[in-house]
Write a structure and sequence with these properties.
Blueprint lengths: L1 H9 L3 H7 L1 H11 L3 H4 L12 H19 L13 H15 L5 H16 L3 H18 L2 H13 L6
Amino acid sequence: MRPALLLLSLAGCAPLAMVLDPPLSQLARWHHAPALAAEQPVITPCPDANPACPQLHTRRAEACMATAMAARAPAAACPGSAARPMLDCAAQSYAAARRSNPHPALAAGQAQALICAANLSDNTHSVVLAREALRAAQASLSPLLRARAQALLDQTQGTTP
């Protein structure tokens, strides 16, 4: 039944798909207007068992991360404080996507978002984010992200959450 719904929604029967499968309807809207992914939260409820939901979380994570990173100064690794909401969006969306897809690229995206968010946080919150970033970096299989997360954690040593 799901393939039929996908075909109906992509063929212009979005109202029918919206009633029968709201996550699939949102995925179809984001397919036609990708910028919406950074602007709209993933529809709730959106169970991981629904094939559209992991795709929605992944698209939102990538859109929020791209928006945040577009605000970086030339040659900067992370954006400034104005991009903090998009970094938070990216980190949360990558975490949601990773619940059903443990792909290292998703972990790397989450680690990068958390590292940048930690750099913009006060010491107490930075420790929590750095720990999360280190866990994600370990799952990402990226030595560079692991080193950056560990350095951030070492920098905040002595601060307790």
